[in-house]
Amino acid sequence: MCGITGWVSYDRNLVSERTAVEAMTETMSCRGPDDAGTWIDGPAALGHRRLAIIDLPGGRQPMSVETPDGTVAMVYSGETYNYTELRRELTGRGHRFTTDSDTEVVLRAYLEWGPALAERLNGMYAFAIWDGRSQQLVMIRDRMGIKPFYYAETSDGVLFGSEPKAILANPLARREVTLDGLRELFALIKTPGHAVWEGMREVEPGTVVTVGRNGLRTHVYWELETRPHTDGKDETIAHVRELMDDIVRRQLVSDVPRCTLLSGGLDSSAMTALAARQLRESTGETVRSFAVDFVGQTENFVPDELRGTPDTPFVHDVARESATEHQDIVLSSDELADPEVRSRVIRARDIPMGLGDMDASLYLLFKAIRQHSTVALSGESADEVFGGYKQFFDEEARKGGTFPWLVQFSNTFGEDDSILSNSVTRALDLPGYIRDNYASAVSQVQRLEGESDFEYRMRVICHLHLTRFVRVLLDRKDRASMAVGLEVRVPFCDHRLVEYVYNTPWSLKSFDGREKSLLREATADVLPRSVYERVKSPYPSTQDPKYHTKLQENVRDLLAKPSHQVFDLVNRDWLERAVKVDTPQIAQAGRRGLERALDLALWMDMYSPSITLS
Asked: I need a surface site. Which of 87, 113, 297, 509 has the fewest CB within 10 A?
């Protein structure tokens, strides 16, 4: 796992721009604390920061190969889980390896198959290859968008990086955010390819982007396809288990300490239990597991619309049954509300998402884990794959017309009072933006011949979650973990599992009327009964009233700076009213507004964006 960056400029020799290239590379130091390297040859420059996971001495980058027709050089971030099979195949084709790293396997796979190598990879990855033979840059991203990858075209080439901050470090980059960028921040949707910053884009998941002297072209090598599902219930359950066993086995491979993230929900519990069994049987090792908790949360827990039970009792049930070496990371409201922690989260994410304690706790959890492990397996994306959210079962959300999670969000929290000024709200026209994006997203769903209206509607809902919703969560998890040099792997994003379950009819996905029926039955033999019976509970949020009070104090400090740029967007009167509310339980929607205002202000302080509202 690493951070990558680079610059291609066909009108100049970048040897004279080494300082700029090194500055871009340095922004990725958190993603790669173990090593740094740059490679420059004429119009191409590559930068790399390394987090060493496999072949610690042999995987240094940028990595290059000399051919009779020119140099081929690569910077690579991620993991290729089938690299041993690919290595054997490439060895049979005459390739000779000098390291044991998956990086060299990917580079030599490019020499053998060109950009088509992407179709052979199983993993999470974002990498760029400068092909000196054709004077082209090839950028490739994994199928589900697990690893981030951004680029910005210039007048004579392109800038790219794992994160926007790498691109923004180059003097050519624009720090402008237009209305569409702001809409992405406030609409709670993820438009494929959109990067918030004007002139910047994402390499979309499952896509190859090739840059040459004549411009840029893209090729989609993978997308969700509709196919008939012919397996019965028992066969489907058995195949899901077979896939899960293989996926977890592959993703446990590491030359550094690894662990699991355990929330006590079905997803993380199943993954942890499988990992514990496999390691115990194969090597005799004990899995380490970690969970986040808040001071006093379990003892004083109050059920609400989203969360009916605290996580910790279920976490401990799994830890006992699977015999993991477990540790709870217990956080206080002072830690969660610390402005320095908020600053680090914003720096990690590059954007102000306003998730507050949920982002802060994730960052602090990963920071604590990094003292013990370098790799963690997560249950992220199982809800999107198997149908775990409430909106999958909500009749109003099923009707269509908008993204189903927006319906559920409104049902849970009520209409959110906008923290934005009236003029900004009118300019954004979020309802119109969401409506247009929804129509575009639904148009990409292929209907199976003979599929009933209900099954097609559920296919649409599944497709929306897998292509528009999960990417927000994957980006959040990647940024928070890599900010402290922790690699988080996501077994439920294996494309074989995603393809298979996506094409399983909803009647099978929910054959017992519950969420994630297939996953529950496929892993029933390794789960405690308490977890098997547990209802879905989202990522935890602190219920401590002290946290809300701390937020109000921080916002009062912001209000004491009336000339701050944030008040060009935020309704100051709304904030002044919100800091006077005495009862946090009544003000949960308002709490989100406080979080958003604080995030926006910090983001503006860090990045000094030029905001264009016309």
From this structure: 113
Mean pLDDT of the chain: 94
Beta-sheet pairing, 176-177 with 136-141:
unpaired
Evaluate the CA torsion angle 234, 239, 245, 248 in order and state its sign: negative
3-state helix, strand, coil in the chain (%, to 5): 45, 20, 35
| Amino acid (1-letter code) at residue 5 | T
pLDDT tens-digit profile of 311-327? Answer: 999 999 999 999 999 99
Instruction: Map tokens 């999958």 to a residue.
Output: 392
Q: CA–CA separation, 295 vs 255, rounded Å?
A: 34
Q: Please report, for the chain, how many H helices and E strands are present, in that order.
A: 25, 19
**Per-residue model confidence (pLDDT) at position 410:** 73
Alpha helices in 114-261 (DSSP H): 164-168, 179-186, 233-251
Nearest to 475 by CA among 144, 165, 23: 144
Distance CA(359)–CA(542), nearest Å, equals 12
> How big is the CA angle at 470 (ends 308 and 363), to the nearest 5 degrees?
70
pTM: 0.96
Judged against a pLDDT cut of 80, whether residue 55 lies above it is answered with no
Question: What is the percent of the chain with per-residue pLDDT over 70, rounded to a whole number?
Answer: 97
461-498 burial: b if 16+ Cβ within 10 Å, else e: bbbbbbbbbbbebbbbbbbbbbbbbbbbbbbbbbbebb
**Which of the residues are catalytic?**
2
Going 114 to 118 to 122 to 127, the CA torsion angle's sign is positive
Distance CA 217, CA 39 (A): 24
Using CB atoms within 10 Å of the CB of residue 84, give its burial: 0 to 12 exposed, 13 to 18 middle, 19+ buried: middle
Task: List, in order of start, the domains of the chain with CATH numbers.
Answer: 2-220 (3.60.20.10), 233-533 (3.40.50.620)
SS (H, E, C) 303-347: CCCCCCCCCHHHHHHHHHHCCCEEEEEEECHHHHCCHHHHHHHHH
For residues 488 and 524, the answer to whether their CB atoms sit within 8 Å is no
Q: Rounded to an integer, what distance in angstroms lies between the CA atom of residue 22 and that of residue 385?
A: 40
Which among 290, 257, 246, 285 is positioned nearest to 272, based on CA atoms? 290
Burial 44-77 (b: 16+ CB within 10 A, else e): bbbbbbbbbbbeeeebbbbbbbeeeeebbbbbbb
CB 339 within 8 A of CB 302: no
Asked if residue 559 lies in contact with residue 413, where contact means CB atoms within 8 angstroms, the answer is no
